[in-house]
Amino acid sequence: MAILSTPDFNASKMIDQASLTFGYTGDENGLSFCSPLSLDVNADKSLDLICFFYTGKAGFHCGDTEGFLKGEIKDGTLIEGKDSVKIVPCR
Question: Which of 13, 38, 56, 91 has the fewest Cβ atoms within 10 Å of its own Cβ atom?
């Protein structure tokens, strides 16, 4: 999972990484770790936060097409987002 930064928002420094949840509803607590190295995944010259989640804890089912992320900025502001997911293998 990449959480994108902007010139005004440094995801790696501003997000409370321990607060992050991701999955079918966004409430699934399956954070494995966030990388200590930031990368520019969308080529906008801002370094983005890369986090890894345990897929078995995400609660996805065959045919699900969206995943939800929730968390907090270190000042207590709640954040959430969603993006497409593809469940493979789907049986």
Answer: 91
Q: Within a domain: residue 74?
A: yes
Return the residue matching tokens 């080529």: 43
* Structural domain range at position 53: 2-84
Nearest to 50 by CA among 36, 68, 63, 67: 36
Structural domains of the chain, count: 1
d(CA 41, CA 80): 19
Cα-Cα-Cα-Cα dihedral sign, residues 24, 52, 9, 43: negative
DSSP 10-38: -HHHHEEEEEEEEESSS----EEEE-SS-
Residue 89, in any domain of the structure: no
Q: Is the residue at 90 inside a domain?
A: no
Between CA 60 and CA 63 the distance in angstroms is 9
